[in-house]
User: Fold this.
Amino acid sequence: MSTRPRVVRKRAFYWIPVYPPEFLGKEPFVKVLTVEPKDLINRIVRIKATNYVSQYEDQLMDLLFRIVRVTPSGAYTIFVGHQYPREILSTIVRRRRSRCEVITRVTTKDNQRVKVSMLAMTFRRAHYRQRRAIRKLMEEYIHEKAKEFDAQHFLWNLVIRKAFHREILSLTHKVYPIRDFIVYKSFNETSLIPHTEIPARVEGDVAKILENAEVVRIR
Assistant:
């Protein structure tokens, strides 16, 4: 019995440049691999914060961007959150100190829901009433600040500029001295593009997008 040789089909993959939001720069910061441009919509791109921060522990955190638009020039993103590695948290948490942790969801000026995780460590063990007061101050403050900014600029001020850290420390210090404070995780939970809107997010001719991309042949 004769057998027909198996035909190996080659699929074309493309490297697409990814651009950050305008307030973070105009040059692409990474390239992503894809088969179809529409497959890029909603993809999360994770990069190190080295180019945006100066402190060593901040350089280790991951910045999260979601691709929301693809054009012939590349893919465009929005800033949706960040995360510190566990090693950084382990250097903050110590014995004989009190851990004041807040995990909350805030609503920004543009009606986006952002999950924020914060951690404050006291110099010594604090009374449970003091710990409760510290958590309440942290949560109330971050909810009020979220109302003043759209989601991307709120995250920019919270994560990169740390514009709220000094005020939070000043408020909590009145209750009990704080040794360390960190916003160790955040994420915009309402940034997902609905499935029905994905085709409209690919702007221009698909053939033109692929023509401008760097092609990689993979069996």
